[in-house]
Every structure is written in structure tokens, then in C-alpha cells.
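If I may wish for something, please sit down with the protein I am sending here and say whether C-alpha cells and residues agree:
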Amino acid sequence: MPTKKESIDLKVSMPDAVKGGVYSNLANIHMSKNEIILDFLFRGPHGPKDATLVSRVIISMDHAKSLEKALFGILNQKNKK
């Protein structure tokens, strides 16, 4: 496993079904002992009680910490502009 100072050349393939992405305007976050479950939902104009799950992402606690750090950095850069 590489250390934080090493970089990895990673070839990522993207299936056609994923290329367009999905839009989410609501998220629910659940936590178990070892994982974080991110449910991304779309809530349309039909009222506050109607939402559709558009994606579920399950990540380890370590990946959640890395994601937190990355998002924090990106949001800080955005707020400085």
C-alpha cells in the first residue's frame, strides 16, 4: 500500500450508464461501526414527502476521513474566491 507521499497512476474506466452522473439535492448519512452509508436523493417539486433514492455509496471510515479532508479543502478554496 502506498504511503501518502507516493502517487499512483490509476486508469479509471467509466461505464456508459455512469457517465452522465445523477443529480441529488438531498442526502441522508447513516453510520455503522465500520462504514458510512451515503444515500443521495432527489426531491422534486411534488412536496416535502416525495424523494427518490438516486445513488447509495458505502465507504469505510478511513475513506470518509479522506473525503472530509478533500471536501474541506475544496470548499475553503471556493470560499476564498
